[in-house]
Write a structure and sequence with these properties.
seven-stranded parallel β-sheet, five-stranded mixed β-sheet, binds NADP nicotinamide-adenine-dinucleotide phosphate, 12 strands, Rna Polymerase Sigma Factor, Chain: A, alpha/beta
Amino acid sequence: MKKLTILGSTGSIGTQTLEVVRHFPQDFEVVALTCGSNVELLAEQVSEFKPKYVCVGNSKKKDLLKMMMPRDVKTKILVGDEGNQFCSTIPEVDIVVAAMVGMRGLPSVLSAIREGKDIALANKETLVTGGSIVMPMAKKKKVKILPVDSEHSAIWQCLMGQPEGALRRILLTASGGPFRGYSREQLEKVTLEQALAHPTWNMGGKITIDSASMMNKGLEIIEASWLFDIPVNQIEVVVHPQSIVHSMIELTDGSVLGQMGFPNMMMPIQIALFHPDRSLCICQPFSPFSEKACSLTFEPCDRKVFRLVDLAYHAGRIGGTLPVAMNAANEAIVAEFLEGRASFLDIERTVETIMEKHEAQGVVPDPSLAEILAVDEWARCIVSEMRK
Ligand SMILES: NC(=O)c1ccc[n+]([C@@H]2O[C@H](COP(=O)([O-])OP(=O)(O)OC[C@H]3O[C@@H](n4cnc5c(N)ncnc54)[C@H](OP(=O)(O)O)[C@@H]3O)[C@@H](O)[C@H]2O)c1
């Protein structure tokens, strides 16, 4: 029986993690659940899973949740970043599932690693911003970073059993999002509704916009670089609209291995939670003869149209606090876009401006957590000034 804390239990990954737990009640126990504001759903999750602790974004939400929770449940309600950190470090917890959105989750992940918890990592912003602290600390504490992102899960599985030094290249697949094949002129006019209509995956708002802008792939390049200790130049983005091949690796002898399946995040979640064991299939079993899989295509990413991919490569090559500035600018401007206050290409323009400003100011090469948080805050402030 593995004991879990789920950070971001009300989101797309959080709810699918609970669905996995529902299928395997003998294998997992939920000790703590955290969320930002969706206390209605959290109250339902509390009734069903009876965690010892929950954490919500602020004390108003706490009062609301108290009113919604069944009287016989003894769950303790915590609040804010401190509450998240507490839930990440509960002694009896084995795995912390990092399923919150944004780099705000970084301190909680670091606290969990410090306490020796394995991390099932969906939250890519954690490694994009804090990879230089997270990975060495995980190694020192002998904790496993179990990838949940489907591409990284695929790469991880393909690498299992390969000798050290055998990896030559990662072929990171991307659906291409709703605007695959669009020109720059067409991108100028796309709407929020169009950007939210992802062709193959059903995900939270922020990652859906990141997928449409291809920033999601940019973040994943940096995430893969940290997870698999490979320079970003050895990671190639391959547009694969069917989302069946979840990524591939090329070995030094030229052999290429890939991992396949219908797009369903429960699969990588299940693989991470059961690692090193394998469980029974709870997703639609794969068939190469299904309409969705019988014709697989691959094409290069149009980096002249989706310029955020090149900006991410650049951030990954320079490293230090440049990916932090890039990520913060992206989080801030995507939030504006989701609220209808920015255009789609404002995302790219804002990220580029903040990166230029940060490079001019001086990138910090090996940042501490405090320096990461300071650059994150600086970038968000500049974005907010730019939007006035
Ligand atoms: N969705 C996918 O298929 C997918 C695939 C691969 C990787 N990922 C990555 O997984 C992460 C989560 O994505 P998602 O799509 O599940 O996002 P989502 O649906 O937007 O869910 C985000 C979760 O974070 C919670 N949250 C927000 N602010 C918080 C705070 N201050 N403290 C604690 N929790 C907070 C939200 O709570 P409330 O909603 O209650 O405010 C929600 O539970 C992202 O980093 C994403 O890139 C997602």
